[in-house]
Write a structure and sequence with these properties.
The complex is a heterodimer of chains A (333) and B (298). With 333 residues, chain A is an all-alpha fold. Chain A is built from 15 helices and no strands. Chain A is globular. Chain B is mostly helical and 298 residues long. Chain B has a single domain, classed as MetI-like (MetI-like fold). Classes of the chains: A mainly alpha (333), B mainly alpha (298). At the A-B interface, α1, α3, α4, α6 and α7 of A face α1, α2, α3, α6 and α7 of B. Chain A: Pfam families: BPD_transp_1.
Chain lengths: 333, 298
């Protein structure tokens, strides 16, 4: 069973050497595929035959569009230009400056950052709390793991419909329960201050299961002896959590923060269904804004907006992987 | 949310980790009862939206909107489900979702395992570059590609067709990554032996490697199916007439359209979207948990 740090280390080396699979052959004794040319050519032909279907689809529908989107972002392309895509005008960075000057784009950027800074800690805290508890039970472990994971496999559209019903001002489940303790619940989705946090709460409920399963696997790699030794030394439960569990889980948690952060930066469906971006654009996200601009037919402008989001995701990922990489060096030293 | 990361390179190790916890198994310390209590309450909170969805979907429209709500339907009715068929065309949406999800799944299982094998075990020019590019596109958000994809599918005459929904998702980088990870861990000796026996490269892939990939193919298939079933943005862009809607598209457009207040109908629709995948998950959860351990992806 590999430990958390080994896992991270392996990941790093995997990325660096994609042809790791060949190494044992080239290192250990004569290998026909390495030294006999005809066989090697045969192998290359076979490899390309196997790679071809994926490569064609990938070029046409993934890599091509990624580059095309960048190209479109510096043009004034509109929906009517689809017939003659090369007849559009080059406008340089105009779309980007227009975006930055648009008050609505600034607002949706701020909203998206709010989704990120509210959503990531909340989702991670719930996942960590549940993972630590489930890690301590001897029975029903599998039952809890499956149960807490359930929301992850469900459609965001469907759960948004359900939660909109739960959040209803009058007769919604939340406000009914609140009324038992004498609280007159607000209209969760009708308030410019409450709507966004309400959507985040639902998203945390829908998403924490993934992190929970990852954290649980991480917790199970922490040697029991560490906790036992700390207990002998008189550390209480909180002390052990602070000084053993958290540091040992750090790489897994940073990874969890990356994937969760990428998710919240793309926030869209929940707001589309539950609030339509309102009230007063208080829940509109960058993806929502891009979708709207696409709907208005402003393809070049929408592509520019989507690239700014892409850039934010790359920066976030890069920063967090740097943190993760630094951590690994320290551990190795 | 779709993102990737490798947590372990040996699928077997991942399996053990996800299913058993050796250092906890022999734990002689008894668990304090309050932990079970907290976890059961937490689990109740997690499943209550599904329970409430199910219960409410069997109430007549007036009772669905009752203040205060009734806990158990005073009048049990299938009326909401009936309206999914009469007022809306749910069988069509359901079939569209099934066709799209199955096609996307088959495409990914076939194409990703082919490329995954080539990247894991064969040497060919351009291999390293291809791996880096495919891996690099893993974190590209859907919102970046959908606009050029819309232009492309329109040009190809595929707008408002199921093929237009399927084709762009038939070859996803995630699957290549997963299959390559798994096949890398298979012993090279198998391939060497088959080569000595005179088997051709494609033959080795089909009759030596693929039969050993069962767990990885199952994981890839299930995760791809779930992802496609729940996919929303792209089908929403492609589908322009009702007969091409998938379930999430239909549900979303009714939920924001003139049916927005018909909660009974919408909740019954949600049941139709959610319950099949929940059942599928409960039967196949082992493979999904393995998949998360293998790749860290949901």
């Amino acid at each position: 069973m590999s430990t958390t740090h080994q896992q991270q280390g392996q990941r790093g080396s995997e990325v660096d050497s994609p042809d790791r699979g060949d190494k044992p052959r080239s290192a250990g004794g004569p290998s026909p595929s390495r030294h006999v040319d005809p066989t090697r050519r045969q192998q290359a032909i076979a490899a390309w035959a196997l790679a071809l279907p994926f490569t064609l689809l990938f070029l046409a529908f993934t890599l091509g569009p990624v580059l095309a989107s960048l190209g479109m972002s510096v043009t004034d392309m509109r929906r009517v230009d689809i017939r003659t895509p090369f007849g559009v005008n080059f406008v340089g960075l105009d779309n980007f400056t227009k975006l930055i000057e648009d008050p609505l784009f600034r607002k949706v950027t701020l909203n998206t950052l709010l989704y990120l800074v509210l959503g990531v800690p909340l989702t991670m805290a719930i996942a960590l709390f549940v993972a630590v508890l489930v890690n301590r039970v001897n029975r029903l472990k599998g039952f809890f793991r499956v149960g807490y994971y359930l929301p992850v496999v469900t459609s965001i559209v469907a759960v948004s419909v359900v939660w909109k019903y739960l959040y209803r001002d009058n007769g919604g489940l939340f406000n009914t329960v609140l009324s038992w303790v004498g609280v007159d619940g607000p209209g969760w989705l009708d308030s410019t201050t409450l709507a966004l946090p309400s959507l985040v709460l639902m998203a945390a409920w829908r998403n924490f299961g993934t992190l929970f399963v990852i954290f649980l696997a991480g917790l199970q790699t922490i040697p029991k002896e560490l906790n036992e030794a700390a207990e002998v030394d008189g550390a209480n439960g909180w002390g052990r959590f602070r000084h053993i569990t958290l540091p040992m889980l750090r790489p897994v948690m940073l990874f969890g923060a990356v994937i969760t952060g990428i998710g919240y930066l793309q926030f869209f469906e929940e707001a589309f269904i539950m609030t339509h971006g309102g009230p007063l654009d208080s829940t509109r996200s960058v993806t929502f804004y891009t979708f709207d601009q696409f709907g208005f037919g402003n393809l070049g402008y929408a592509a520019a907006a989507s690239y700014l989001l892409f850039l934010a995701i790359v920066v976030l990922t890069f920063v967090q992987f740097r943190l993760l990489g630094d951590r690994e060096d320290k551990v190795k030293r | 949310m779709t993102t990737t990361h490798s947590v372990t390179h040996d699928p077997k190790a991942g399996e053990d980790e996800a299913v058993v916890a050796p250092n906890q198994r022999d734990d002689s310390i008894t668990t304090p009862p309050w932990i079970y209590a907290v976890l059961l309450v937490g689990l109740f909170l997690v499943v209550i939206p599904f329970v409430w969805m199910l219960i409410s979907s069997f109430k007549p429209e007036a009772e669905v909107r009752a203040v205060p709500p009734t806990w158990w339907p005073e009048t049990l009715t299938l009326d909401n489900y009936d309206r999914l068929f009469t007022q809306l065309d749910f069988p069509t949406y359901f079939m569209n979702s099934v066709i799209v999800a199955l096609s996307v799944t088959v495409g990914n299982v076939v194409f990703c395992s082919m490329l995954g094998y080539a990247l894991a075990k064969l040497s060919f020019p351009g291999k390293k570059l291809m791996f880096v590019i495919v891996l690099g596109t893993l974190m590209v958000p859907g919102v970046v590609t959908f606009i050029p994809l819309f232009v492309l599918t329109t040009k190809m005459g595929l707008s408002n067709t199921l093929i237009g929904m399927i084709l762009p998702f038939m070859a996803a980088p995630f699957g290549v990554f997963l299959m390559r990870q798994y096949i890398s861990a298979l012993p090279d000796e198998l391939i060497q032996a088959a080569r000595i026996d005179g088997a051709g490269e494609l033959r080795i892939f089909a009759s030596v490697i693929l039969p050993l990939c069962g767990p990885a193919l199952a994981t890839l298939g299930i995760l791809t199916f779930l992802g496609s079933w729940n996919n929303f943005l792209w089908p929403l862009v492609v589908a322009q007439t009702e007969d091409k809607y998938t379930l999430p598209v239909a549900l979303a457009l009714y939920a924001v359209g003139q049916n927005a207040t018909q909660y009974g109908l919408l909740l019954a629709g949600s049941v139709v979207v959610v319950i099949p995948v929940l059942v599928l998950f409960l039967f196949l959860q082992r493979h999904i948990m393995q998949g998360i351990a293998m790749t860290g992806i949901k």
